[in-house]
Design a protein that fits this description.
By secondary structure, this protein is of the alpha+beta class. It has six helices and four strands, in the order αααβαββαβα.
Length: about 190
């Protein structure tokens, strides 16, 4: 591999910057994959993350004496890579969530609207600080959370909700939810 030292200093810095964005973005996705227990995807992302990182650090260290701009590009690429990795992760929204909604006036109507939209809500009656309310629980793919909440807010704009990642689930209406198990699943995700 030709070293970046032979390139124009600004071009070499841009290459290092881009390599760092790539490796840190892969690292962000790998970390999330590890937390979600996606072993195959974590291994694959870890391999490419380390390969790109090793390339970037080797090139930066070889050329840093002649081109101190490489050090700034290396650090800047790390910082930018965090932001890019987070944006990519938000876009692909891996995982399954449980959405807990609470409504004091329209719980039944929200559950009906969600059922009509194809969701499988479970409702409970409870008592909150302001009196009786309905709790609605739904398990859904994370990438569809905004659609589900839009349906619920269409019935009750003042609905209170929380969203939590689900590590495991089994049976019932949740059996139809797909849990992508490998890297190809990222490309199969559809809305």
């Amino acid at each position: 591999m030709e070293t970046l030292v032979a390139l124009h200093p600004v071009v070499a810095a841009l290459v290092i910057f881009a390599l760092r964005i790539i490796d840190v973005s892969l690292g962000t996705l790998r970390t999330i994959s590890v937390v979600q227990g996606r072993v195959k995807l974590s291994v694959l992302l870890g391999f490419f993350e380390t390969f790109v990182w090793l390339t970037a650090v080797a090139q930066a260290l070889m050329g840093i004496e002649k081109n101190p701009l490489l050090m700034l590009a290396y650090c800047g690429g790390f910082a930018a890579g965090n932001a890019v990795g987070i944006q990519i992760e938000r876009k692909i929204a891996m995982g399954i969530v449980v959405i807990r909604m609470f409504s004091s006036q329209a719980g039944g109507a929200i559950a009906s609207a969600l059922s009509i939209a194809g969701w499988h809500p479970t409702t409970f009656q409870g008592i909150g600080a302001d009196g009786p309310n309905t709790m609605i629980f739904v398990i859904a793919p994370r990438r569809r959370t905004s659609d589900l909440l839009e349906t619920a807010r269409g019935v009750d704009p003042h609905i209170y909700y929380s969203v939590d990642l689900v590590r495991e689930y089994h049976g019932g209406a949740t059996a139809a939810l797909s849990t992508p198990a490998d890297w190809r699943a990222i490309f199969r995700m559809r809305k």
